Structure formats: structure tokens, C-alpha cells
Amino acid sequence: MKRNYNLFYIVIIIILTTFACKKGTGDDNPIIPPVSPPVTGNIVYKSDYAYNLNVVYFVPNNAIANADYEERISKILIEGQKFISNGMKSWGFGEKSFGLLKNAENTRVKIHLIKAPLNSDAYANYPAIETLVKAYFQQNPQELKSEHYLVLTASNKKYDEGETDTHAIPYYGVGRWCYAVDFPGLKYENLGKPGSVGDKATVYIGGMLHELGHGINLPHNGPSASQAANPAFGMTLMGSGNYTYGKSPTFLSYFDAATLNNCQIFSKEVKTFYGAVTSKVTEIDAKYLNGEIIVSGKYTSSNPASHITFRNIESSDPDGYASITFTTKPGADNSFSLKMPVSEFIKKGNSNYTLQIFFHHENGTNTSTSYAYKFADNIPVIDFGDRTLLARTGWTISGFSTAQGSFVATNVLDGNANTYWHTSWDNAQPHPHFITIKTGASAVTANGLSINTRQDTQAGAGKIKDFRIETSNDGTNWTTVYNGTMALNGVQYFSFNGAKTFNYIKIVSLNDYLGEKFASLSEVNLY
User: Fold this and answer.
1) Which residues, listed in sequence order, are joined to residue 483 by a DSSP beta bridge?
2) Could you say which residues form the signal peptide (predicted)?
3) pLDDT in tens, 236-250
4) Theoretical Cys-Cys bridge with 52: which of 138, 145, 249, 408, CB 3.0 to 4.6 Å?
5) Domains and CATH numbers, the chain
6) Angle at which helices 69-90 and 207-215 cross, to 10°
7) Mind listing the pLDDT tens digit for each residue in 419-453?
8) Count of alpha carbons within 13 Å of 233, Cβ hemisphere only?
């Protein structure tokens, strides 16, 4: 489903599951008091964790709770908890998983029942559901156990017998929320069975765990070449695991485990989570040598990073389902160094890639910085090592086509990769767009231009594709010094044909990656 544009393009560099599956949006927003917590008799629910997943069973007015939903959903979640625990242990993090409130026999999970006032078509998009769930926990604050939610909407259609709903039911992860669906007969025991029964179990149980992954901070990522060929690994849960779970080998990646290790509901101690973090790569060197991409450098961070992941996203897969990841621990003095064997890349040939350097911070927040590179005839072409950038003292914006709200043109000069200039979407105008910079009181001499894109790795609209660079000494008479194409994501360098001296530089967009009317840039430098 298509996202609301205003929301879709707000960059969330403090990664929350920013990398979630595509979702719907909606304006239905009924403020109706939900029901009180269900009566649980003598059942006492406990957990070893300081924080636990809030599990909600959501029943629209024209539906009923499916038979045995507590037993069935509990089994699915308890087995999912074991799957995650095994994955965490395999990567050296111990037997830890997401917290669940469970009975003493370890057979039931605490599930909050919310009966909605409207029919199911009013809840085809998540905001209407979220409103009622938040109202429920506002009325019952003692029941709220964390910032993470799993909401299952009841559908009375028998999916495994070919029945379908007449409208969408939210099924995705967004922020710290996971939305999934329950239908009659959705059972853990059906995993691996032949035919539609087994297929639907994999899609809707594996899918639930995949979307829950997004709700507990996980982006998409795929297996490396050797993992995909090894039956002990197979497919990552956060790749296409929603089509393999319970059917063929499916695993939790090291990237996933390093992320979950700092997640709130994996903690057994009470502490502060998800505070704002500022991080920056201050030095970077990258090269291809002896069949490996070697990346090293240094960084600063306002909160320590427990691990660093190098996530390689191929341009035809911007959501990163098949992204190749390499995870390591930081070196001394906030340094990093990693070798990525090219043999582990499944797609090479002539491909464009984004390298996302992903910092797993101890407070659960994740930040990243991206760089563009490519493969040419199966060989990596690396061009994002450090350049000596000109000081931007006295630089000002002397012109721009349009700007939207706080996404002002001066953001390209503020030294913060998390802010950016974006052309207006309230009054969208067609390309070409432009931004012009005056390099202070006097002219400068430069060999090339460096830019950084918006920090999300998914969206293509507003990411400049074809462009040109013009220079001027008076801001009136212009000379074109470069024509080319930007990569979709990351820091990039464009060398002029020899050194150029000028007092003004203009970047002119000719189109963007989705053929829309927008342009954006995070940072502009000269070297």
C-alpha cells in the first residue's frame, strides 16, 4: 500500500525499525472507550524480564474472537521466543529473548482483548487501531509493560480454505508496533504440513514473527552466499523468512542478534532506553584487495556502540530484504575495521550498492551513515574514502528552487547528516530544481563536489538521479562543469575535469529515482 508522502519522507536516522515492511495509512480515528482487561481467573502471569511485549487481540464489531485464540497465539509466541533465544545463543549473546508475561506452566501468554466499536473496514489501516489500543492502556496503565506492541486483528475468514477478506487488515511493522492477523485454525502445529494448511501457517506465523522483528527494531537483511547454501542457516527471518519459517531452514542473523541485544524487551534490568544519539563517522578508508572489501575508520558517538554492522544494500532491493551484512565489535578509541569477502555477495555483476554503517547503541537506539559504491564486471569499485574537504567558513545559500517547512536549504551546510533540504511537496513543482551556494567572500579552488543523500535507504522520491553542476564567479553567468548521475544513497564524490576556481556553485536536479517532482540533499561539500 502506498504511504502518505509527508510521513514517508521524514528521515529517521535514529533507527527504530525504520526499515519496516510497507504499510498502510488511514484517517479513521474513533475515540471510543475500550473494554476493561479480560478476567483471567486464578492465572498469574510472570516474567523474568524487566519489560515485556504488550500483546493485544483486537476484535472488530462485525467479528468474533476465533476459537482457542489464547491457546493458539500463546503457542506461536512461546515457540517464537524460543526461536529468537536459540538465535541469540548461537551468536554468543546467551539464552535471551523478548519478554513475555506467561503462566507458571509456560503454556499461556497474557493477551489483552479489545473489542472495537466499528466494523472491520474501519480498521483497514493502523492509526484507527493504534488509537484504541493507546486508549485501552491509558485506562489500564498498570497493564502497559513496555514500548513494544503486537496487535493481532481477528478475521473469521478461513484463509487455509481459500476464504479472503473484502478489505485489507494491517499486517506490517511500524515503529515499535507490529500488526498481524489471526484466522480460524492458525496453529503452530500446522507448520510443515502439505498444501494450503502448511503454506498459510508459514506465511502467517513466519510473517507475524517477521513483522514482530520490525516492531522490536529489526531492519530487513538477508543471508550471505555461504549461509544461503548451508542447511544450518538457510534464509534470514528478516529477509524472506516469512515464506520459509517452519518449512525450510530459517535463522536469526548476527545483525539481528546485535540489534536485539540492546532492545528494551530483551532487558532483565530497568534502565533508560531509546534516548537520542548523535553519531558521526570522522575517518573512513575503503578499498578492494585480494577478493575483499576492506573498510576501516573512526567515529564519535554520544552513546556507546556495542556492535557495528556493515549492511550492503543492492539498488534493485532498496528495502534490503537481501542485503548482505557483516557485524563486528568496535575497536579501541571508537575505531572500526572489517573485511568483507566478495565471495559472500550473492549479486555482483554490474550493480550499484549502498554501504550502510549501522551503529548498535547500548541504549537501544540505532544510527547509521551510508556510502555509495558499485560492482563493475564482478569487481567492487570503491570511491568513498576520505577526501580533504574545503572549510565551509562563510558559505551561504544564495538561491534554491523551493523548500518544504523545516527542510530548509541551509541544512546542506549544517554538518548534520540527519537534516536535509527537501523541495516543497505542498506546492510541488517539476524538475529541474536547484540549490546555489556562495563560497564566502572570495572564490575557492576545488577538484570536485561531495554530496550526502537523505539518510533513509528505502525511499526513491526526492533522491536526485541525473544532475549537473554549474559554477560562477558572479552568480549570474554560469559554466557547466559536470553532468552525471547520483547513486541512490550515501556519501558520493564527483570530480571535475581539473581544478576549478569559482565563488558560486549550483547543483541542478534533472529527475529523481521515482520519477516524481522532488529533490533533496543532506550535505554539500567541496574537495
Assistant:
1) 468
2) none
3) 999 999 999 999 999
4) 145
5) 23-265 (3.40.390), 279-381 (2.60.40.10), 396-526 (2.60.120.260)
6) 70
7) 999 999 999 999 999 999 999 999 999 999 999 99
8) 17
